[in-house]
């Protein structure tokens, strides 16, 4: 309670200063389409566009690969998430990732904090609609002195899936000061907490056979008592300083996920006629703690048109968590097309839990060189030590280790004015995914994976437009559910494909972000050779296309129209590839109107998502089905005070 009171008092102080000062644009100007440099993934505020996201790049997780960065620094697998602290994110692949030392296969996600500037500011956003997000955000910045500023905010929102009945309540609080004692030196810190007292969702559906399940009714199909109760705490301190040709950067990051109550409701062995087993997995309290840090010393040397930087880095991460001990309650057979009965909450006794701990430390040396009008080159080498300890309650600890050398190299060449060719190779070591709820070894996390990535491409500036064409080949061990429902390595997976991005402002007032991925994901190994599993990985589409337009009407520049079209191709939904989920195309339509509200800048945004109310399925990597949300109408009002 004391943290909540402190955050509210801070917000009121920001408001008092902001009213007495000129407005500084914060939330009213947020627009992911106009902010995007390419189609690979941009998040601004609560708006996300692009082919990729913080969860998935080229079919894999950048968090698992350790490719989450802030100010270029290593966060391991930590994604801040709290929007009172984090203002957005950008996905970097191919040439756009070249300036980052020590990358790993998949792609880099660069997070950005809310600005803490030199003028007081306060922004509020109200959300409402038939479904989606309902609530408010309040964000601001407050200068304390010439060198110290605060940023922070508070928000309460209810996220609703109508008519399915899912909803979650979340209270977010965050503060992020900035200290700038001199030019070339900045230190940022942040603390944020998210309370989720209630988070209920419709069951995941796991299909038996090779036919899709029937359409679900427009009613909540979970149990009211099976609501998660979550708390997320995130803390960080990072910064940099320069002295002469040297730059010292560093950061420490801490993240805790505390699920006091957690449930997974499942429709298992679902048939095309609608019959399925109704199962609820009830978990004991689960806490996952993640830490990460890096210290980096960089030396810059310039000689005419040539620019050289050498980096030396020490970084590490740790993660502790637990799994097992849950109780699986089978409520018998139900019909997917009907609303399940309200079952009484069972009394359960939890079993012993298994502790899971990962520690990884890495030292690296990297070089990046840029020759004006000629090209760029970068190379890096890292030595990493990885240790994973699994402690079953009744058995000796299981310890796995890895200590490989990892290297990366990239080359970019300016072929002509505005035309750049590049190529790269990267090695990595990362955690594998956690076994899904349907697995006999549910929640178990296998050992580290050796990974590699090759890419080659072109970037061409065509007037105000930027075209990127990139070919990639990412290879990793393939973990998934086998025929015996054991989550284990089934072979090697390779995602080989072509990315295309076109972004810019071809005519005044029209911003275009268009992209496509044509990919050939394939699994190889003894399981495929023997016909035990299919050659295509579960849940991976071979085609993805997106188009985003934002057009300011020339005769009414206060008004803009925006269109989003997202197409995802067909993809296999089970490990033997006997069930294929059809492709889907979702259309979103909206408008923004900018005006003055009592002399304050304001933006009213109206948005229709899934405009044509297409019924479609999402498929997880473990084969779980979730319905794509139906058509939604939402509105938001942003005001900069």
Features:
single chain; disordered N terminus; 641 residues; 37 strands; 6-stranded mixed sheet; 3 helices; 27-stranded mixed sheet; mainly beta
Tell me what the structure shows.
The protein contains three helices and 37 strands. The protein has 641 residues and is mainly beta. The strands form four sheets. It has a 27-stranded mixed sheet that branches. A six-stranded mixed sheet has the order 2-1-5-6-3-4. The longest helix is centred in the first third of the chain and has 18 residues, at 2-19. Residues 1-25 have low confidence and may be disordered.
Percentage of helical residues?
Answer: under 10%
Shape: globular
Q: Which secondary-structure class do the elements indicate?
A: mainly beta
- The DSSP helix count reads 3
Strand content: over 45%
Mean pLDDT: 89
- The low-confidence parts are 1-25
- Largest pleated sheet: 27 strands, mixed
Q: How large, in whole angstroms, is the Cα Rg? A: 25 Å
Number of DSSP strand runs: 37
Distance between the termini: 28 Å
